[in-house]
Amino acid sequence: MIKEYIKEFVKDNKTATITIVIVLAVVMLLATLSGCKADDLIQIKTPPAVQKAIGVESQISLADAGYAWNEWSSHIKLNSERFAAEIEEGRSTLILINSLTDMGLSALNGPMQTVPGGAVIVGGVSMLAGIFVRKPGTKKQIEAAWEQGFGEGQAFLNVEEEGDDVGAEG
């Protein structure tokens, strides 16, 4: 009886039936989507430096972005502290070397003044040592500068090859 009534209603009201079916389909779709986490569907591009530093993919979901941001911030903070400690240690070493050098020159100045031309000899030897002797760590600094320049050049070439028009007007 109800079955026949529904069949008769559908035959007589096709527009209403189509509308009801569409509304029910939309409600089912919305109910399904409300159960999904939309932040898993949204993808974010991560810069190459971030990918390399914290080991994430080139695109991550918005849900994972907060975790990646915290990892990146921790990475920056930790490496900044390490770098600051290295700089401070280097400064301490420099102060120690300067102090020892000054003490050595002061100790030589006294006896060398009694030798004819001794002050000139000490000054000349000091000047030659300053010109020709490399500072400690110079080789590492030069290698690091070459590596950094090479890496930046490679990154620049990779960006150009991918066709990214970062600064282009659109």
Question: Would you write up a description of this structure?
Answer:
Helix 5 packs antiparallel against helix 6 (118-132). 79% of the residues lie in helices and 4% in strands. The model is unreliable at 164-170 (pLDDT under 50). The protein has seven helices and two strands, in the order H-H-H-E-H-E-H-H-H. The chain has helices at residues 2-12, 14-35, 38-41, 48-54, 62-112, 118-132, 138-162, and strands spanning 43-45, 59-61. It has three domains: 1-36; 43-112; 119-155, no CATH class. A two-stranded antiparallel ribbon has the order 1-2. It is mainly α.
Notable characteristics:
two-stranded antiparallel ribbon, 170 residues, mainly alpha, disordered C terminus, 4% strand, 2 strands
Query: How many β-strands, per DSSP?
Result: 2
Number of domains: 3
Can you count the helices? 7
Net shape: rod-shaped
Overall mean pLDDT = 79
Task: Give the arrangement of secondary structure elements.
Blueprint: H1 2-12, H2 14-35, H3 38-41, E1 43-45, H4 48-54, E2 59-61, H5 62-112, H6 118-132, H7 138-162
Antiparallel strand pairs: 1-2
Helix pairs in contact: 5-6
Short description:
This protein is mostly helical. The chain has seven helices and two strands. It is 79% helix and 4% strand.
